[in-house]
Amino acid sequence: MPLLTAKSRISDGWCPDAVVLQGKLLGAFDAAELLDHVYRDAHDLPSWVGFETGTGAWNGHPSMFLRGTYTVGDWHLAAATRTIVYEGRGGVYLTQLTTTVMAGQLDELDIDLTVMHTGLMIT
What we know:
Structural class: alpha+beta
Distance between the termini: 22 Å
Protein name: LpqN/LpqT family lipoprotein
CATH superfamily: Mog1/PsbP, alpha/beta/alpha sandwich
CATH topology: Protein Transport Mog1p, Chain A
Oligomer: single chain
Largest sheet: 6 strands, antiparallel
InterPro entries: Lipoprotein_LpqN/LpqT-like
Organism: Speluncibacter jeojiensis
Shape: globular
Mean pLDDT: 88
Radius of gyration: 15 Å
Number of domains: 1
Low-confidence stretches: none
Helix content: 10-25%
Keywords: Lipoprotein, Signal
């Protein structure tokens, strides 16, 4: 479910959006291995070209940040995603924020996207 859409910025049938996914993780797992899957999954996107990757902790929690472009049909998209694994009340959780815009809109919307990603807090 989109957290935010920019309907006034629809271009070629694509609406820029930001999506937050969150879920409780069940069973045994390794946070570093799970985040490595995030990295590999992004690189499996059609024509993925990554231009920023970060693996440092985010607010003290294991995290992966990726930015890049990929192509789906006629759409050349720019995406940024931050995935965080953290211990919370009653278990271990994964939260992921992904923003996606047309690659041609990246310069225009970059500040908005940066604010969303830097403002992501896990409390």
